[in-house]
Amino acid sequence: MNNSNSEKALSERPDHELVRVKELKFCWGDKTVLDDLSFTIFSGQIVAILGKNGAGKTTLIKCLNRVQSPQNGKIEICSKDISRQNLIELSKSVSYVPQSVRTNFPMDVFDVLLLGRRPHISWRTSSEDLQAVSETLRKFGLEHLAFRRFDRLSGGERQRVVIAKAVVQNPRVYLLDEPTSDLDLQHQLLIMESVTDIIRNSGSSKSAIFAIHDINTAARFSDRVILLHEGRIFADGTPSEVITQSNIATVFGVESKIALSSSSSPMNIVIGERIKQGD
């Protein structure tokens, strides 16, 4: 995705709110991880949550999916307070991909994806459910794994299957926590391009939010970046507005050189030397 096109998409976004967060606060004991976060995400947006380790990226994703419960604040998805929804209701609107997959499903990959249809299944699996699984396997290049045992797959293969399971769930909002962390370079591009394609071709009815540590992935595939620092939103805007030399120096403590996107290449950030204290 050309980043100049993504920034144009952000400026022309529809006004339909999918996610609204107001005054969110989360603590581990006496340590404040997220402090007074407020933001709104619109349909059609692909939003990167960026920040250094410990900035609260994963915690924020988990709060949006009720995996973690904040001490204060309100989260609405599709205009509904998530604290008042049961998990089946929430799963119709939200799918979640964790940072690492530790579960060893003792079942075939096809059946793992079919679990993603559970929020939509009333009594029995339909032909529509089976077709959705088959199409998603094909989209993510997983057809050859369809009848392999999930617990016998490599880490990268498991990650791809779990992302495909989230897609077959057909939510309005995708929550992805470091979705490319276990993938090789080719499959990193395949996953991010596939998710981007889903959002772009949804008729502006869906949105994706992904926590990421890779600045170049955030710059290339998002049209909006929320930069977290010391528990707060440090910057929020288009990639070129947020990913600047000054912000990178302040948040990550390193020097950088930035080449803005063009018609032939995406925005590219080259990380330089660590900034020593006192510099």
SS element count, helices = 10
Low-pLDDT runs: 4-14
Give the helix proportion (percent range).
Answer: 25-40%
| Mean pLDDT reading | 90
Element order, helices and strands?
A: HEEEHEEHEHHHEHEHEEHHEE
Apparent shape: globular
Give a count of the beta strands, DSSP E runs of length 2 or more: 12
Report the major sheet.
Answer: 6 strands, mixed
Task: Describe the strand arrangement of the main beta sheet, using strand numbers.
Answer: 6-7-8-3-9-10
Structural class, by secondary structure, is: alpha/beta
Overall radius of gyration: 19 Å
* N→C terminal distance: 37 Å
Strand residue percentage: 25-35%
Helices and strands in order, then pairings?
Layout (H helix, E strand, L loop, with lengths): L2 H9 L5 E12 L2 E12 L3 E5 L6 H8 L7 E6 L2 E2 L5 H7 E4 L11 H7 L11 H13 L15 H14 L4 E5 L7 H16 L6 E6 L2 H7 L2 E6 L2 E6 L1 H4 L2 H8 L1 E6 L8 E7 L5
Parallel strand pairs: 3-8, 3-9, 6-7, 7-8
Antiparallel strand pairs: 1-2, 1-4, 4-5, 9-10, 11-12
Summarize the structure in words.
The chain is α/β, with parallel strands linked by helices and 279 residues long. It has ten helices and twelve strands. It has helices spanning 3-11, 57-64, 87-93, 109-115, 127-139, 155-168, 185-200, 215-221, 239-242, 245-252, and strands at 17-28, 31-42, 46-50, 72-77, 80-81, 94-97, 173-177, 207-212, 224-229, 232-237, 254-259, 268-274. The strands form three sheets. It has a six-stranded mixed β-sheet with strand order 6-7-8-3-9-10, with helices on both faces. A four-stranded antiparallel β-sheet has the order 2-1-4-5, covered by helices on one side. Helix 5 (127-139) packs across helix 6 (155-168). The radius of gyration is 19 Å and the shape is globular.
